[in-house]
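Reopening this one. Same input as before:
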Amino acid sequence: MSKTNFIQRVAAYILEHYPTDTDQLTIVFPNKSASIFLKKELSLQAGKTIWMPQIQSVEEIFAQWIGMSIADPLSIIFDLIEIHLSTRSGGDEYMDQFAGYAHQIAKDFDEIDHHLVDEAALFNFLSEAKALELWHPDGSALSTYEKNYLHFFKSLHGIYIALQKIMLQNNSAYPGAIARLLSSLSDAELIAKSGQKKLLFVGFNALSPAEE
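Same output, byte for byte:
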């Protein structure tokens, strides 16, 4: 099915089932790209002036419900770099290396939260696995590079915790953290936060555990 045909079917469904209360309807898409097409199609099919439903992405509506803003990815990277610098007594000798990893770390943290992973167990397993990877059968000492490599993986859990605190203080977080916070609420709390509008979730072929 083409995107155009899908949007046509969505518009037809809305006008059939909510002909007089489109203003009380919120449409939730996986992203915002479909909103312009849906508004245009609703206007065409209605053939008259109607109140448009509110159209939001799933990330936007989750942020609204939890009362936080979606953090700019670059701000998360800067936060990670600041955390790294504040925890290294040796100064910024390895800051360039860490800055190169920060983007991937932010993505990994987002995935961890989206999938409701036990982060303490994960990071503990990861650091132990890396320690075994670097173990020297002959009993020789680790090189400076190997020590720094191991320190990096051992520090990830502390970095994760520190970033969570900063995001809560700033009232701004990456989408996975927002979804995880919402997932910890009871059904009654979620219903209260969603307000009085009718909700239609449209076009989702998969949800992360936190989103579900």
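So the earlier flakiness isn't reproducible anymore. For the record, The two ends are 25 Å apart (CA to CA).
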